[in-house]
Write a structure and sequence with these properties.
- By secondary structure, the protein is α/β, with parallel strands linked by helices.
- The chain has seven helices and 14 strands.
- It is globular, with a radius of gyration of 19 Å.
- It starts with 8 loop residues before the first helix and ends with a strand.
- The structure holds adenosine-5'-triphosphate and magnesium ion (MG).
- Magnesium ion binds next to helix 2.
């Protein structure tokens, strides 16, 4: 795909290929071209023979893997970037960061620490105002990136950048070709990403006695902690992990008879942990809403 290269984009990619910062955090409002710039940067780095990692923490508009997750990809060749294979995944449980700042932050840090490429690039949500502002600040503190890429239309990131002025930052303009996506377009992209992910899903049955449940600390109307079992709603999105707690993939709850949990999932490995998500989704990608956490 031909992309427009606004002033500074080429030079930024060239500098990064030369200096090889170990960890880069890309910041910007929605639709400013974060994904486009990152793809351009990764292609440039691979073209220079550098290995690179992508940590995709944009849980709503993913470039790598299914929504509601943070994912890690490792690339040595261009075709690997095109294939977009996920090497590791962390389940956030929602396509929106609201109410999920902790798993988003924990997942981003864990996967960034796993990254093996010479240069690791972290993509983020376009959530940069209000709670998003605080989140981005904590992300900078936690990830300690060597470089920030700030894509901004005007000066919307400056208050944040001022607070972290000690971190080297490249400010880049937004392309005139950057197009905004409507709420419906975003939802359609998520639907397609979920549908693609679940296209190879099969039904599996898990004995409740044989698995551990995580992310169960929800409060019911009386303020009591709800039993995990009570939250195993039809179409609940769940994360599935192995004995070590490493996420293997996602599933959708399809039935529960008190002892056996029926799910559909593309995961084939042994499942030891079920992490409860906060949204209801069908395998065709249709989102049915959120559940209270
Ligand atoms: N430099 C560019 N050249 C051509 N098209 C661009 C460029 N930058 C952005 N676009 C287009 O604008 C739209 C938004 O860009 P992109 O998806 O990269 O932004 P984003 O910041 O990652 O958005 P989101 O917040 O949804 O993750 C896309 O359709 C993309 O193709
Ligand atoms: Mg994006």
């Amino acid at each position: 795909m031909d992309i427009d290269l606004p002033q500074g984009w080429e030079e930024a990619a060239r500098c990064i290929a030369e200096e090889k910062p170990r960890r880069i955090l890309v910041l910007g409002d929605v639709d400013v071209g974060k994904s486009t710039f990152i793809n351009y940067l990764l292609r440039t780095l691979l073209g220079e023979g550098l290995t690179c990692s992508l940590i995709d923490a944009d849980i709503g508009q993913k470039d790598l893997g299914p929504p509601a997750t943070v994912t890690l990809g490792e690339f040595q060749y261009l075709y690997e970037l095109r294939l977009g294979k996920v090497r590791a995944m962390y389940f956030v449980g929602s396509t929106s960061p609201r109410g999920h700042l902790l798993p988003l932050l924990v997942g981003t840090k864990l996967l960034a620490d796993k990254a093996q490429g010479t240069v690791a690039v972290v993509n983020t949500t376009g959530f940069v105002k209000n709670a998003g502002f605080a989140l981005k600040g904590f992300k900078i503190e936690l990830l300690k990136p060597e470089l920030l890429i700030a894509l901004q239309r005007d000066a919307e990131l400056e208050p944040l950048l001022r607070s972290y002025a000690h971190v080297h930052c490249l400010r880049l303009p937004v392309s005139a070709m950057a197009k905004s996506k409507s709420f419906e377009e975003r939802r359609a992209l998520r639907r397609e990403a979920f549908r693609r992910y679940f296209s190879s899903a099969v039904e599996r049955r898990l004995e409740v006695e044989a698995v551990r449940f995580q992310r169960v600390s929800a409060h019911n109307e009386e303020g009591e902690v709800e039993d995990a079992i009570g939250r195993l709603k039809h179409n609940l999105l769940i994360g599935l992990a192995n004995e070590e707690g490493e996420v293997l993939g996602l599933g959708i709850v399809k039935g529960f008879d008190g002892r056996t949990l029926s799910i559909i999932t593309p995961v084939k490995d042994e499942i030891a942990v079920v992490q409860l998500g906060s949204m209801l989704v069908r395998e065709n990608g249709e989102e049915l809403g959120f559940v209270r956490r």
